[in-house]
Amino acid sequence: IPESVRTLSWDGESTVTERLRSVATQFDNAELSYSFTVENLAITHKYINIWIKRGTDAGQELRLDRDIDSFRVTTSVEALYTGLVVTGGTPEGANEPITLKGYTYDDGDIFVDTNGKLLSRTGAEEWGRLSNTNSNAYIMGVFSFDTTSQSELCNRAISYLRTHKEPAVNYEVDIARGLENSHIGDRINLVDDKGHIYVSARILELKTSVTQNKKEATLGEYLI
Fold first, then answer.
1. What's the CA gap between 36 and 38, in Å, rounded?
2. Contact between 19 and 9 (Cβ < 8 Å)
């Protein structure tokens, strides 16, 4: 990502992996992978690969009873938010980080309220406990991004809210054939004609067992 430049700092301690993930997040939610060079059963090189976004969309299709033996659906609302408290970086000479207060945005669904909160009307209508005219209807989360630009901060928060205003769904798939040339991040189509399920999702995990002669994949937008 040579065109992006960030000045980052952290307080406190974290593991190397946690810090790498934090760096990637600050670079427009870049994605990481790890690879190794092995010679004579010894690891000679370790690589950290940085991607703007991993994978491709080749339109590959997996059909139940043809390519896959079965699949299981896991749903989680642990990271479901219909509103966000948003903070950015701290401008030079200031004591507090920027927020979205005073910034105007409204696309009919997602909007910035007078207090600078980013809210989703459709999210509140579907998941709110009260009328969506009441602020208590929103399930609030926290979003931070290291920028002093309100417009950039708003765009990043909108992207995050769009992903998280619905429950996370993962499909754990037992593969009979296919995905020989697929990789983590690739987008594929999962089809179950009998159950009327048609899903477009990314490969989040891909496990192959040579001894058991089986292959498993986890599909979704992000891993639960």
1. 6
2. no
